[in-house]
Design brief:
The structure is a single chain. Strands 1-3-2 form a three-stranded mixed β-sheet, with no helix packed on it. By secondary structure, it is α+β, with helices and mostly antiparallel strands. The radius of gyration is 22 Å and the shape is flat. The protein has a domain of 60 residues.
Length: 142
């Protein structure tokens, strides 16, 4: 069996349950198809006195010393206090930000936005925007 687990920030289904399991049903039919595929949606607001409630509380707790699970608390503490871990985390976040800026720039350029506007909107240098624009012209099927 395969489980796909989504942890969502709110109780969007609205029933106050800790988790919701969804089944695969063919459109227009009420016959359950058992493919061994399970979709679980975890209510991120859940704070029950159980393992899942403690995990959700820990995921929202900024102070590792107040967490229920020692392994998670130790890792969070490392990420916040160990200089090597802090640098590694900052580098990872910066890489995500940079990749996002480039993805936004590419999407804007595909919509024919002026390179000057793209540079201003994303904070990328004009040189980088022009490089991205040139790469779109080379073998792009879009």
């Amino acid at each position: 069996d395969t489980y796909v687990i989504f942890i969502i920030d709110k109780d969007y289904p609205g029933s106050g349950l800790p988790l919701y399991e969804y089944e695969v049903l063919p459109r227009g039919h009420n016959v359950k198809m058992d493919f061994g595929l399970h979709f679980l949606v975890i209510n991120g607001e859940w704070r029950g006195e159980d393992a899942l409630g403690w995990l959700m509380a820990d995921m929202h707790e900024p102070n590792p010393m107040k967490m229920h699970y020692p392994v998670l608390a130790r890792r969070c503490l490392d990420l916040k206090t160990d200089d090597k871990e802090v640098v590694q985390m900052c580098d990872a976040v910066q890489k995500l930000v940079d990749e996002s800026k480039e993805e936004i720039a590419i999407n804007l350029l595909k919509e024919k936005a002026a390179p000057e506007l793209v540079s201003k909107a994303t904070g990328l240098s004009m040189e980088r925007v022009l490089e991205l624009q040139a790469s779109l012209g080379e073998g792009s099927a879009d």
